[in-house]
Amino acid sequence: MSNSRAQAANHKAHNPLHGQLHNASHSLEKTSRPVFLVDGARTPFLKARGEPGLFSAIELALGATRPLMLRQDFEASELDEVIYGCMMPSADEANIARILALRIGGGDKLTAYTVQRNCASGMQAIDNAVRNIAHGYSDLVLAGGVDAMSRAPLLLREDMVRWLANWNKAKSAGAKLKALSRLKPRQFTPIIALLCGLTDPVVGLNMGQTAENLAWRFGITREQMDEYSVQSHLRLSTAMDAENLSEIEAIYSTKGDAFSADDGVRPDSSMKKLAKLKPFFDKPYGKVTPGNSSQITDGASSLILASEEAVKKHRLTPIARLHHAQWAGLDPAQMGLGPTHAIAETLKTHQLFMDNIDYWEINEAFAAQVLACLKAMNDFDYCRDELGLEKTLGEIPMERLNVDGGAIALGHPVGSSGARIVLHLAQVLKREGAHKGIASLCIGGGQGGAMLVEAV
């Protein structure tokens, strides 16, 4: 490490202002009102299969929210607000949170807004709700997230848009013939909006390429990635057999077909099968394949958050207590390490150590990304140089991480995943009789988010 970087790390570790900010954050947490997760539901996560899925984003959001609201003792109109995350709404779903609020019968006066923080949009929605309740602005909030990634639009090239503009201006037959003579076949090639959305415009890398960066930096092998991916599928399959995914609500198509389970899971996944897949993002020498990456998926997750006053008023039974999220930024080319940074901030804010945490959910954008986070947390040089710590964060036991599988097996509908991992972590804590958990995920653009969840 250079002298300048060493001095910067040392300055951060011993900066009195840094300590004051930490103490202020901890004091704020102690003086604000507690926030409770009282119930939640999600749709099955349905894998994109090369064509638009059966359900739009608002249909998915309703699929998660309607059964959730039907089992409550209060009406939708008694909610204070609806906050929903969505990265890629369709043109007719602008402010999808407001559409959801009206469609569930919240009435004209129920305010709602949509948030977008890439992969953490669902967690951002929950975080906004937590902060609003904690500081007395709200008492009862519906929060969550959705994305119908299979319905991401195909866009026209700029030269095609310009041609259409000139065609519209052409009035005479001669002008139209002249415009037609300038039309080239390449102008019909569409732009895939989903690929644009999953590519960082600052560093020019798509998310898979950033995962390749981490695999190279931390010496993660293809075999290690595939082994982790097989584990994800087998854990999800086991959880499904054990009925440990009680938060899922079936969703029905207009033809009456029912979808009641995540359909991307492969119970027969094996190292032998994954070894046949070729690198996708860094051909031909890379290590990241479709088999050790998260699946492109459609899905929604909805949670009801309440203050202590609302819990008493509506006779609710809390599942967990939620704390406001911690957010961290880092090099976009290393974006998969975001959980390492956000987890470090979370532990520091709450004056906790790794050993204090019973269960973990780290969203599986890529196997390489999760494995890199685990290595970085236990790497002295990384913790010193990048996090400004005097020692490593420590290890997360694999038997405590993503115990029911993750996005490699069940998919990553970007707007929903942050809400899903918070909800499922709360269910795991309840099921296992555990006390504390942290949900975290990396965020395209070079950020990380994490949230402390405590059992009630």
Overall structural class, as computed from helix and strand content, comes to alpha+beta
What is the subunit organization of this protein? single chain
Low-confidence stretches: 1-25
**Backbone CA Rg:** 23 Å
What's the CATH superfamily of the largest domain, by name? Thiolase/Chalcone synthase
Compute the number of strand runs: 17
Helical stretch count? 17
Give the N-terminus to C-terminus distance in angstroms: 44 Å
Q: Looking at the structure, what is the overall shape? A: globular
CATH class of the largest domain: Alpha Beta
Tally of separate domains: 3
| Main sheet record | 11 strands, mixed
- What proportion of the residues form beta strands (DSSP E)? 15-25%
Description:
With 456 residues, the protein is of the alpha+beta class. It has three domains: 3-29 and 202-243 and 266-296 and 323-455, Thiolase/Chalcone synthase (Peroxisomal Thiolase, Chain A, domain 1, 3-Layer(aba) Sandwich), CATH 3.40.47; 34-153 and 298-313, Peroxisomal Thiolase, Chain A, domain 1; 156-193, no CATH class. It has 17 helices and 17 strands. It has helices at residues 3-14, 16-31, 57-70, 96-103, 121-134, 158-169, 173-181, 193-197, 207-218, 222-241, 271-274, 308-313, 338-349, 367-377, 380-385, 407-410, 414-432; strands spanning 35-42, 46-47, 81-85, 111-115, 140-148, 154-155, 191-192, 199-200, 205-206, 251-252, 258-259, 297-307, 320-322, 326-329, 359-362, 436-443, 447-455. The strands form four sheets. Strands 1, 2, 3, 4, 5, 12, 13, 14, 15, 16 and 17 form an eleven-stranded mixed beta sheet that branches. Strands 6-7 form a two-stranded antiparallel sheet. It has a two-stranded antiparallel ribbon with strand order 8-9. A hairpin with a 5-residue loop joins strand 10 and strand 11 (258-259). The protein is globular, with a radius of gyration of 23 Å. The model is unreliable at 1-25 (pLDDT under 50).
